[in-house]
Structure formats: structure tokens, C-alpha cells
Specification:
Blueprint lengths: L2 H12 L3 H20 L4 E3 L3 E8 L2 E4 L6 E4 L2 E8 L1 H7 L2
Antiparallel strand pairs: 1-2, 2-5, 3-4
Helix pairs in contact: 1-2
Length: 91
């Protein structure tokens, strides 16, 4: 399912227009993004939670040449599925 298919499904199941569903989805995404950018955590009980973790700098290897390269540190987004979501997927 891509973004436009999700918007269509949200509009159909909630009985709202596609424009309203698009606005709601974009608002949700921007709020999650903003919270994570500040280092916060977003948790939806039963569905899952998003958090930010710092990945330290490390040495890597170029597979073509075998040369050692330095991989910079960066923040990564992590998602942990909630119990209800895992249960729905593993029926």
C-alpha cells in the first residue's frame, strides 16, 4: 500500500473526503517527524512506537577495493511493533 492508497482507504473507512484524509495523514506524519527530530518518542499503544537512536561512527570496508572507510555517526529511526499489531500479523 502506498500513500495514495492509504489516503483512499482512510477516507473510505472514516467516511470523510480524500482531501480531509490526506490532511489528517500529512498532519500525523509531520507531528511524528517533528517529535523524532527533537529526540522524542512517539508511542501508539497496541500499534507500536518510534524512537531515535544514535549510531556511532565506525570503520567499514569498500567491497570493491577492500579499502577501509570511515562511516560517520548518525541518528536512526527505530520502530517497535506493539503486541496487537504483532498479533494481527501473526494470526
Amino acid at each position: 500500500m502506498n500513500k495514495s492508497e492509504l489516503i483512499d482507504a482512510m477516507a473510505a473507512s472514516a467516511g470523510i473526503t480524500k482531501a480531509a484524509a490526506k490532511l489528517a495523514l500529512e498532519s500525523f506524519l509531520s507531528n511524528v517527524e517533528g517529535t523524532l527530530a527533537k529526540g522524542g518518542r512517539v508511542s501508539l499503544v497496541g500499534f507500536g512506537s518510534w524512537s531515535v537512536s544514535n549510531r556511532a561512527a565506525r570503520d567499514g570496508r569498500n567491497p570493491q577495493t577492500g579499502a577501509t572507510i570511515q562511516i560517520a555517526a548518525k541518528n536512526v529511526v527505530k520502530f517497535k511493533a506493539g503486541a496487537e499489531l504483532e498479533g494481527a500479523v501473526n494470526k
